[in-house]
Each structure stands twice: as C-alpha cells, then as structure tokens.
Design brief:
Strand content of chain A: 5-15%
CATH class of the largest domain in chain B: Mainly Alpha
Radius of gyration of chain B: 36 Å
Strand order of the largest sheet of chain A: 6-7-8-3-9-10
CATH topology of the largest domain in chain B: ABC transporter transmembrane region fold
Oligomer: heterodimer
Structural class of chain A: alpha/beta
Number of strands of chain B: 12
Order of helices and strands of chain A: HHHHHHHHHHHEEEHEEHEHHHHEHEEEHH
Shape of chain B: elongated
CATH superfamily of the largest domain in chain B: ABC transporter type 1, transmembrane domain
CATH class of the largest domain in chain A: Mainly Alpha
Largest interface: A-B, 192 and 198 residues
Low-confidence stretches of chain A: 1-12, 590-596
Helix content of chain A: 55-70%
Helix content of chain B: 55-70%
Chain lengths: 596, 576
C-alpha cells in the first residue's frame, strides 16, 4: 500500500506569504468583529497599564502618608479598572473564538464543497483517508492557531509600536543600538523557518498518508483478516508512522529553537544597551536617568518580539495545514470545460453518442469512435467481455467523465452546454457497487427522491422485492446500516439500490450489473417491476446474464472499446457473430455431464 | 489522563526528567536575569563604572548562553520524548484495532478510529511537548511568587493562602467541565469525518444522483455542530481566565486595604506592602498563561480518554494454540456440524443446523436466494465470525481450537466485493504471500484470466492501483482478487460470488483453470452454468440446506432447483 500521490504530483514548494494572505482573506469576512476585537485589545492594554498606575498613586498618596480619607474610593476605582480589564479580555477572546471557528468552519465546508466539484477522475488516484486528513487534521492546525495567535499578534504588535515610539522619544541613538539585534533576529528566524516550513509540510503530508493507510486498512480489514496479514499491515503502519515521527521530531526541534534564540538575543541586546549607554553617558551624550528608563523599555520592547516569535511556531504549522487545504481548493473543478451553464429542461430521454472517444489515462484508448442513438423510451443493452468498456460508456452517459473527442447529445443538445447536475437529476442509477450510507434503510431508499413520503419509500421497496426481508429485520425500515455485520447481504443491498432507483422516477435509467448478486428467482420477480420501471424511460443496461437483456430494443456488443455489433436479439442471432456465440453458450441447456 | 495512556510515557522517563531539569535551569537563569539587570544599573550605570557594566554584562551574556544551550537541548529531548510517545501510542492503537473482531467495528465506526489514531494522539503528543517546555512555567511562577510573598510578610500574604486554594478548586472544576466539552468536540470531529468518508466512498453515486447539495447540507450540519462545540469548549476555558485575573486583582485591593491599616498601626512597612503587591502582579501574569494550559490539558484529558477506550478494549483471545498445515496435496476436508449462527443477539438467526462435508479436492457450489445465508456460511470458515452453535472441522480439527493465523494461511478467500489496496499490481498479488515469485504470480493471473489485461498495461505488474483499484473494471478487479487468493496456494479456496461480473466465457475458462489446483473449493454462485461444474451443489433456503447433490440429481429431485434452472434457461416470452 503506497501513496500514489507522489507519482501524480510533484511536491509544491510552500509559499508562506501567499498562504497567510489567503487565510487573512477568510478572516477578513468578519472585518467588523475583528475591529471590535482589536478595540478590546487596545482597551485591555490601556486598562492593563492603568491598574499599576493607580496603585502607584495609591502608594504615593495614601500608604506613605498618614492620609486615609477617601482611600476606599481609590480602591473602588481600581476595582472598576480591574473589572473592565477582565471584561475586555473576556470579550476579545469570546469574539475571536467566534471568528476563528466560523473561519475554520467555512474553510472546511469550502473544502467539502470543492470535493463535490472535482471530477471523478480526481478520486481515481487519491486515498480517501489522505483527503480526510486535510479536512480534519490540517484544518485543525489552522483552527488552533487562529484561536490563540491572532490576539497575541495584535497585542504584541501594539506594545511593540508603543514601546518603539517611547524609545525613539527617549533616545534615538540608543534605539538604534537596540535595533541592532533586529537583523540578527530576522536572519535567525529565516534560517529556522526555511527548515520548519518544509518540515511542517512534510509532517502534515506524512500524517495524511498515515491517515490514508489507516482508512484503507480499516475498510479492507476483511481481506487483512482472512489472509491473516495483520502483522504485515502493522509493520507497514510502523514504517509510515516512523516517517511521521521523524518529520515531527525535526519540526518540533527547530521551532523550539525560536524562543531560545530570541531570549539570547534579548539578553545580549540588554547588555549592549547597558554597555553603549554607559559609554554614551561617560561622553555626556545621554543622562543616566534616560539610560535607566531606556533599559526598562528595551526589556519591554523585546518581550512582544518574544511573544511573536512564540506564535510563529503555531503559525507555521497552520500555514502548512492551510497550504494543503488550498492545494485541493486550487484543483481544477469538474465544470471547467463547461461553456454553457444552461439547465436542461425536462428531458424526453433521447441520448446520442457521436464519434465519442475516451481514455482514463493519456494515450490509452478505453473506448473509441462510439456512435449510437437511443430513442426516447428505448431499452439499450450493452454486452461484451469484461473490460470491454461497457461501464466506461455508462460513466460517459452519466457525465462522470468527459469524452476526449466527439459529442454526447441529450435531446439533441450538446451535453457540454448543459449543466451536469441538471442532467444527472433526471437519471436513475443502479451501479455495480451498490453503495449505501450508514443510515436507516428508509433514508437510503429515499436518497432516490428526497421528498418521497414513507409510503412511497415502502412502495418502492415492495416493487424491488426488498420489503419481505426488510420487514423481517427487528427494526424494519429503521434498521441502520453499518459497516459490518448488519446482516444485510450483498444481494439485499442491490435490491435496496434498485428500490432507490425506482423511487427516483428518472427520464433516463442506468442499470450497471444491477442484478449481478441477486439470485435468478428473485431476479425474475423484480424483472416485471423493472420492465414496468423502464416503460417510457430510456434505459441503458449492462448484464452478463443474457436473458435479462433479451427484450432490449437495441443491443450494442462492445469489444475492446468499440461497438462491433448492434441490433436486437433476433437480428444479432441472425448475424451469427459474437453475440450469437455468447448466446449459444449461455442458452444451450447444459447436457448431462458425461461420466458422472 | 488515564493510567493506560500515561504508561506509554514510562519508557521516556529519562528524557522527560532531563527535559524538566533543563527547563528549570532555563527558568532559574531567567529569574536571575532581572537581578543582574538591576545590578548593571545600580553598580554600573548609576556609578558611571564602565568596567562593572562590562563584567556584569559578560556574566549576563554567559548565563543567557547557558540558558540558550539548555533551551536548545530541551528542544531536542522534549521533541524526542513526545514524538516517541506519540509514535508508540499510534502503533499500539493501530495494533489493537487490527485485533478487532468484526462486531467491534460496529461499535467504533472507522471514522472515529481514524480520528483517534491521528487527531487524538496529536493532541496528546503536543501536550506532552508543551508540558516539557513551557506549561510548567506558570505554576512554578505562582508557587515562587506566593513563597516569596509569604517570606516578606506572612500576615499580608495570608490573602493568597485564602484565595489560591479557592482558585485551584475553581480551575479543576473548569478543567473537568471543559474536558467533557472537548470530548464532545472530538465526537463531533468523528461525525464530520464520517460524513466526509462516506462522501468520498460514495462520490460516484452522489454525483450520479446529483445530490451534491443534499450532502453539502448534511456536512454543514456536522460542521456547524463541530464549530459550535469547539467554540463553546474554548469559550469556557477563556472565560475562566478573566475571572481568575479579576479575583487575583481583588486580592491586590485587599492587600492594599489591609496593608494601609497595618501600616497605620505599625504592623508592616510600606516597602513590604509594595513588594507583596508586586508579587501579586507577577502571579496574575502567570495566571493569564493558564488559559492556554487549561485548554491544552483538558483537550488532552478528553483525547486520552478516547485513546484509552480503545487501548483497554478487551482483547480477543485466540481460540486455541493448535496449528494446521497442509498434509495431503489434494486439499483440506471441511466439515460443518450443526452450525447455527446469528450476527448479534438482536438480529434473527441466519443459519440453522447446517451440516455437510466437503471432501479433499471437492468443489462444492452453494446456491440460494438473496439473503439465504450463503456469504455468512463462507465467512465462518476463516473465523471471520464465530458460529453460535455447532462446530466446523478442517482436516478433522475443530477450528475453534486452531490458531487463527494458522487456519487462515490455509484459506484463499475471495470476498464478494473485490477490494484491492493502493499499490502496484505486484504488491497486491503478493499480498497473501510476500515471497511469491514473478512466475507464481504470472501463473495465478493466467489462471484467473487476467494475464493478458495486465501485460497489456504499459507498466504491467508495476501498474499502480488506486484505492479499490479504480483504474480497473469490476470484472478485472474480481479476477485480480481471485489471482491474489490463488497465489497463496492454499488448501481451501472460498469464492463468494466472486465471478458475478465476469462474462460466461471468461468464467468457464477460469473454472477450468482452477481444476488443476489441489484445493477444496466452496463457491457461492447464482449461475447454474457455474454450479453444474461443481461436484456437489448445496441449496440454501432461509439458512437451511434443503437439498444437496450434483446438478443432475438436483434437477431430478429439487423443485426449487428446477425453478432456478428455468429462470435461467427457459425462454421467457421471446421465441428465438
């Protein structure tokens, strides 16, 4: 089990500024509230300074003198300041959490929406678990950063600007000395960041791969168990886990460097200021008092820088996470080719293929030069050996893939000019893998038509011959289908998908091996229902059992991606070609086996 | 955090200890730093003594270098401990899950298991890292501040002794509450993951039915649930801190009030009061770090609970120690004795009193209506499920007493849904037998009638398959998963309707090719054409064997079989 992604796409270099800008564009949707947060940060900074100021006054005016009159008033004032300080802190956090969670929620649903916009071909080479990791783990990184960092960055920048102003006022010369460490700091940060941003990205990628591996091994646990290969899977897991550990280790180590570097630079800066100050004082360029105040401010200057650098770690991991999210958001959408955004009107159901060629991989040739026309209400059967391209034709009709060449026409209109969804909404499907949701049987059937009533759902189930087994289940239609052992067999799942398609009442019906896991007696029973369903609807069906397709108006025999024979059952038999041999084999009543 | 998760820290006691010591060194240096600064000012600058400035500045630089070095080392050691802790935890969780029975997967949906291994472990891992680097700092600052204040003036500092225990209780209460909330956050994350996973797996169907909007609104619900829960959990911890700070600030008021009275009565001095007020300010600053700590710790508590739940889930003892090996070269004997089976207590019984024997080398077909129990019967043989009554014997050994891996090595199982793993075709083929040679693989794919397809691919056996082998058609996937089972050369071959997507010609060739394998085959099928190639056919109705025999025998004696036959060969309505 290897991650195929690497083969598909080269690693994109992380681009810090662009990603931050993009996160900001998400945040800025709530500009008003952000401004309020900023206001609260300013308020809390001022109130935070006011507290000590009042205390200083109180000490000077009351404690050191014998005067006690109206002392309680000072304390009440102080209590008020403290109260509003706490309130402003609380408000800024409260609002910021709201903003960040909303932002993250929006990112998550954008990503989810994008997953639906991407063409099916995108999924051919992706592991689900790897994609899941982007929606959960990567966005989680963004979330935790936004919660804590934004306010920190605000207030750090605020104090930074404030102290810088005071410092400049006190002594531009000493300020210059203090600033001497700033380039050093940037150089150090850059050195670290150039490593960590790569490492964080790698860590998130490894985490994604691990997630993909876990997902696959859980959904494939039946195979793993029955082949008794748990040990091998665990071994592979450990290898991937080790890779994650390695990237995570170095990312953590390097980001751990940042605050330490800041600390040592701060201290040197302080020593430098003291030294230079002493020197300047000797020369009479500054007063001693200025130096004392200045060192105090120099210390204050470096503290927000320290805080900022601490925030940098989390910011980096957020950027790495967001980067992976944006990667997907930047994938080309399914509709990129669509010139027209026309909604199709109600389809009559005519489908035409005109010189259609298509391949999944570039340079391959899955189907070529397909030409056929299905009149409204016609039943078209696709016959041929496995891998001939029958399911591909179905995929093209349902517009999961776009033809490389040629045109597909619905009611005479070029499909490329109609919105995909508006066509699909008029189709009903029973696909090869009968996919069901982890939901109740009732809701699974209702998926065919969301506004169907319970009665209609049950009717559809009856028609599909599924009612009998459903009502035997202890919870009937409310039985929730789960991943394993809900006691629903593959054939029963197929019956449910048929019921789902019956409920949809589509203009075009697509049956891809719809009854392959259903026993032939049950099949006979639902056959009538199916033919009633096909009545008046254009139907495309694939089946290996020829007796299910004998009544088709048109049979297309597909071999190696081409239509090699066409006609109805009788016509094809008369041709004595591929279909004839197939039919001969299947309908020849088995002779009594010799020698038994 | 619960004991089980804690126990995974034990191997890293040494690095954890070292990291803590390094952190203390750093903290100590940091605390002396203001003292040195004061001395630089007092002894150097105030006295215009440049030499003192140089000396003390040098000392300060030296000390900060020491702090730097210990800080850097701390980075290495703390990262080492936390990353390894996370690594071990993930490995153990994964291993535990590999040991899960099928029923366990119903209790824990896969999306939840995935979140637990990745997201929850991440939380725990970064919490450990934080604890080793910064989180301890705040409590230490509080303790240091209070101690110093008590030393200065015990009477005034009593205020702390009253307030701090109260605040501690408050903190713990908040933490308990918020860890419960964070537990809900993780559960909401599971839900998001679940919708997501389902959407990814069912994308084709969803797109086909143009249900994108429906799914978006479903996701929106799960998503907004997650954001709301996260917001309320975070808001709780963020509310705690302003309250803490406010209470601490009130303590300053109290100190000022009592200090003022005491000064008037001569019990204390102004200097002492000022000092205690200063300490209070420091303690308050330390408290503002608590919001971060509470969040991290309560998240970790929730996550460790979830990891713990899996880790302490009862392991399933392997049934026995007996092993089995291929003794004869004809295939194994499979014997079902009065087997009864149901998936769970609540669901109805699927199989009743199934008794039959498949002799070495025999090919037995199993037929029956949809839901009659065919797949269930097959799945009992590799012990994917355990029967409720009766016993199954393989080569006269009760599989209950067999070691699972030993049993499963004897079985080539092809499930109904062809499931391939991400990787090359070669890797998929060698899945059951890692040392399989290219020749063995070629032989298996030849017999599975897929060799031409594979060899026509540009990269042949090195072709990468996506998840579930999406590049291949349904029938090709089925044949590949049959080939995978054949590579194993096991004594038992179980084909669970695994030829449904094959056309008859291909299927006939495949069945023919299987004849040369020395194997006992159970084959579930719907097709008479397949069944008649078997030595014997079991006909299942509602979980009971109602008839068995060869094709001819059943045609003669079983009306149901005749009916199935008719459904496939009678010309219904159309004359040819």
């Amino acid at each position: 089990m290897r991650n195929p992604q690497r083969a598909v796409k080269a690693e994109r270099p992380p681009h810090f500024a662009g990603t931050v800008k993009r996160i900001w564009s998400y945040l800025s949707a709530r500009k008003g509230l952000l401004a309020a947060v900023l206001l609260m940060v300013v308020a809390s900074s001022i109130l935070g300074l006011l507290g000590p100021f009042i205390i200083g006054k109180a000490i000077d005016n009351y404690l050191t003198s014998k005067n006690s009159a109206r002392f309680e008033w000072v304390l009440i004032w102080l209590a008020g300041v403290y109260f509003f300080y706490s309130l402003s802190v609380w408000l800024q956090n409260f609002w910021m959490i709201g903003i960040s969670q909303e932002t993250v929620g929006r990112m998550r649903s954008d990503l989810f929406g994008q997953l639906h916009n991407l063409p099916i071909a995108f999924y051919d080479k992706r592991q689900y678990g790897e994609l899941m990791s982007r929606v959960t783990n990567d966005i989680e990184n963004v979330s935790s950063t936004l919660n804590s960092s934004v306010i920190q960055i605000f207030s750090s920048v605020l104090t930074l600007v404030g102290t810088l102003a005071v410092m400049l006022y006190l002594s531009p010369l000493l300020t210059l000395v203090t600033m001497a460490i700033v380039p050093l700091m940037f150089a150090g940060m850059k050195w670290i960041t150039s490593r960590t941003s790569k490492l964080y990205r790698e860590q998130q990628r490894n985490l994604g791969e691990l997630n993909g591996f876990i997902e696959e091994s859980i959904s494939g646990h039946k195979i793993i168990k029955s082949f008794s290969e748990e040990k091998k899977v665990i071994r592979e897991f450990q290898e991937k886990n080790k890779k994650l550990k390695k990237a995570g280790y170095w990312a953590q180590v390097y980001t751990g460097f940042i605050p330490k570097l800041m600390n040592v630079l701060n201290n040197s800066s302080f020593a430098l200021v003291a030294l230079a100050g002493g020197f300047f004082a000797l020369k009479g360029m500054v007063t001693v008092g200025t130096i004392v105040t200045f060192t105090e401010y120099a210390r204050q200057f470096t503290r927000p820088l320290n805080d900022l650098s601490n925030q940098f770690n989390t910011l980096l991991s957020a950027v790495a996470g967001a980067d992976r999210v944006f990667d997907i958001l930047d994938e080309r959408k399914e509709d990129f080719k669509e010139g027209g955004a026309n909604d199709s009107s109600k389809l009559i159901g005519e489908v035409e293929f005109s010189h259609v060629s298509f391949s999944y991989e570039k340079g391959g040739d899955t189907v070529q030069e397909l030409n056929f026309r299905a009149a409204p209400g016609e039943k078209v059967a696709l016959v041929g050996p496995t891998g001939a391209g029958k399911s591909t034709i179905i995929n093209l009709i349902s517009r999961l893939y776009e033809p490389d060449e040629g045109k597909i026409l619905f009611d005479g209109q070029d499909a490329a000019e109609i919105r995909r969804e508006s066509i699909r909404k008029q189709m009903g499907f029973v696909l090869q893998d009968s996919f069901l949701f982890e939901d109740s049987i009732r809701e699974n059937i209702r998926y065919g038509r969301l506004d169907a009533s319970d009665k209609e759902v049950e009717e559809a189930a009856r028609t599909a011959n599924a009612h009998a087994f459903i009502s035997k289940l202890p919870e009937g239609y409310d039985t929730v289908l789960s991943a394993e052992g809900s006691g629903i067999s593959q054939g029963q799942k197929q019956l449910l998908s048929i019921a789902r398609a019956i409920l949809a009442k589509p203009a075009i019906l697509i049956l891809d091996e719809a009854t392959s896991s259903i026993d032939t007696i049950t099949e006979l029973k639902i056959k009538e229902a199916l033919s009633r369903l096909m009545e008046g609807r254009t139907t495309f069906m694939i089946a290996h059992r020829l007796n299910t397709i004998r009544q088709a108006d048109q049979i297309l025999v597909v071999d190696q991606g081409r239509i090699i024979e066409r006609g109805n059952h009788q016509q094809l038999l008369k041709q004595k070609g591929f279909y004839y041999t197939l039919s001969e084999k299947q309908f020849k009543k088995p002779a009594v086996k010799a020698g038994m | 955090m619960k004991e089980k998760v804690i126990s995974y820290m034990k191997p890293y006691r040494l690095p954890i200890g070292v990291a803590l010591i390094l952190m203390l060194v750093e903290l100590a240096v940091e605390l002396t730093q203001p003292l040195l600064m004061a001395r630089i000012i007092d002894e150097g600058i105030m006295k215009n003594d440049l030499r003192a400035v140089v000396a003390l500045g040098g000392e300060m630089l030296g000390l900060s270098l020491l702090a730097f070095v210990s800080g850097l080392s701390n980075s290495f050691v703390a990262a080492y401990a936390s990353q390894n802790f996370g690594y071990d935890l993930r490995n153990n969780l994964f291993e535990k899950i590999q040991g899960f029975l099928f029923a366990d997967f119903n209790r824990y949906p896969s999306s939840s298991l995935i979140t637990r291994i990745t997201n929850d472990v991440n939380q725990l891992q970064s919490t450990l890292f934080m604890c080793l680097r910064i989180a301890m700092r705040a409590p230490l600052l509080v303790i240091g501040g209070v101690t110093m204040a008590l030393l200065v003036n015990a009477r005034l500092a009593m205020v702390y002794l009253v307030i701090i225990p109260v605040l501690l209780v408050f903190l713990i209460a908040i933490m308990n509450r918020s860890s419960a909330l964070f537990g809900k956050v993780q559960a909401a994350l599971d839900k998001v993951n679940r919708v997501l996973r389902e959407n990814l797996a069912g994308m084709k169907l969803i797109k086909s039915y143009a249900r994108g909007d429906h799914e978006r609104s479903r996701f929106k619900k799960a998503n907004s649930n997650l954001t709301e829960r996260t917001a309320s959990a975070l808001r709780l911890t963020e509310t705690a801190v302003p309250i803490l700070i406010f209470v601490m600030n009130l303590a300053i008021l109290a100190i000022l009030w009592f200090g003022n009275m005491d000064i008037k009565s001569g019990k204390t001095t102004v200097g002492e009061t000022v000092a205690i007020v200063n300490y209070a300010a420091r303690i308050t600053t330390a408290f503002s770090m608590f919001s971060f700590i509470i969040t991290v710790l309560s998240r970790a508590k929730a996550s460790s609970g979830r990891a713990n739940e899996i880790l302490s889930y009862p392991s399933h003892e392997d049934g026995g120690n007996d092993t089995i090996s291929r003794e004869n070269n004809k295939g194994s004997k499979i014997e079902f004795q009065h087997i009864g089976f149901k998936y769970s207590e609540e669901t109805p019984e699927i199989l009743h009193d199934i008794t039959f024997t498949a002799w070495p080398g025999e090919r037995v077909a199993i037929m029956g209506a949809t839901g009659s129990g065919k797949s269930s019967l097959i799945q009992l043989i590799p012990k994917l499920y355990e029967p409720n009554t009766g016993s199954i014997l393989i080569d006269d050994k009760n599989i209950k007493h067999l070691r699972t891996d030993s049993l499963r090595r004897q079985i080539g199982y092809v499930p109904q849904e062809a499931l391939l793993f991400t990787g090359t075709i070669k890797e998929n083929l060698a899945w059951g037998k890692e040392d399989a040679s290219l020749k063995e693989m070629a032989e298996a794919v030849e017999d599975a009638q897929i060799r031409d397809t594979i060899e026509a691919l540009p990269n042949q056996y090195d072709t990468l398959l996506g998840q579930k082998g999406v590049n291949l058609s349904g029938g090709q996937k089925q044949r590949l998963s049959i080939a995978r089972a054949l590579v194993k050369k096991a004594g038992i071959l179980l084909l669970d309707d695994s030829t449904s997507a094959l056309d008859l010609q291909t299927e006939a060739k495949l069945l023919k090719a299987l004849e040369k394998y020395k194997v006992t085959t159970l084959i579930v099928t719907q097709k008479i054409s397949t069944a008649k190639e078997a030595d014997r056919i079991l006909l299942l109705v509602d979980g009971r064997i109602i008839a068995q025999g060869s094709h001819e025998e059943l045609l003669e004696c079983s009306p149901l079989y005749r009916e199935i036959y008719a459904s496939q060969f009678e010309e219904t309505g159309v004359e040819s």
